Amino acid sequence: MLKGRLGLDTARVPHADRHGLLWLERGELNVIDGCLHFASGRHIDQIPHQSVSMILLGPGSSVTHDALRLLARHGTLLAAVGADGVRTYTAPPLMPDRSSVARRQAELWGNPRRRLAVARHMYALRLGEVLPHRDLDTLRGIEGARVKTIYRLRAQQFDIDWDGRRYDRANPEAADLPNQAINHAATAVQAAAAIAVQALAAIPQLGFIHEDSGQAFVLDIADLFRDDITLSIAFAAAKEAERSDQTVDRLMRREAARVFRKKAVIPAMIDRVKQVLRLDEKLEDNDGAGRGGDV
């Protein structure tokens, strides 16, 4: 689609739902003769808005009122994101015209037994085994102990001096370099998870492990990528910062962009959302849901 024009053939994120996502930056999204166009320099290209599930609008871009109106009419989601998608700033409620994913999520979340089953499944994905425990506090404690070991091993892998995870929300810059890098990397991975959740029209507030945050489900998905993605990005950036005059935040963004592209992180997150919600299974009837067992 639009191969070779504005680089959209490489910027597009493969996505099984609808026809995927488009990344646009440094231009204006507007409407010409009733059709969506993106003007960048001397190039003006038509965007197939009716067949795209989501447009990611990057830095240096603007959008007209007519473009927003057209996107809303055709149910195409628009999200303003940071450089290379390592931040997400806003996503107007231009969601896909369906409720199946949200209904599935709400069904699982609203049934205590199924909600716990999903949480245990997510812990199993992270820890590599299905734990027998059925109490969330116990599972959180086990995860916390293992995470300490994972932090230490990852730090050794990147030859980073590690004194433990420390984070002061009131003064995040007070942390040492590795902890600052983890803070920045976590923000980037959460942005990617937010894009995945938004693209599927899932409900960000209904988390299965996280509870209080308005982005609870986003945090659930981001945590599934913490060990392999977040820590690798963070410690790679921290190591580079030790021998560079650039800020760790800048280095982290560059590393996150590289890893996101190389490992197709956002498509992987979309697939993981589908996996934890078991979207390939048919919903049971109300009676069956009331009597049902684990997910």
Automatic annotation (TrEMBL):
Protein name: CRISPR-associated endonuclease Cas1
Organism for this UniProt entry: Caballeronia fortuita
Any matching Pfam family: Cas_Cas1
Keyword check for DNA damage: no
InterPro entries: Cas1, CRISPR-assoc_Cas1, CRISPR-assoc_Cas1_C, CRISPR-assoc_Cas1_ECOLI, CRISPR-assoc_Cas1_N
CC cofactor: Mg(2+); Mn(2+)
Binding site for Mn(2+): E143, H210, D223
Subunit structure: Homodimer, forms a heterotetramer with a Cas2 homodimer.
Gene name tied to this protein: ygbT
Domain of life of the native organism: Bacteria
Main function: CRISPR (clustered regularly interspaced short palindromic repeat), is an adaptive immune system that provides protection against mobile genetic elements (viruses, transposable elements and conjugative plasmids). CRISPR clusters contain spacers, sequences complementary to antecedent mobile elements, and target invading nucleic acids. CRISPR clusters are transcribed and processed into CRISPR RNA (crRNA). Acts as a dsDNA endonuclease. Involved in the integration of spacer DNA into the CRISPR cassette.
One of the record's GO molecular function terms: DNA binding
Family membership noted in the UniProt record: Belongs to the CRISPR-associated endonuclease Cas1 family.
Entry EC number(s): 3.1.-.-
One of the protein's GO biological processes: defense response to virus
Record's keyword terms, sorted: Antiviral defense, DNA-binding, Endonuclease, Hydrolase, Magnesium, Manganese, Metal-binding, Nuclease
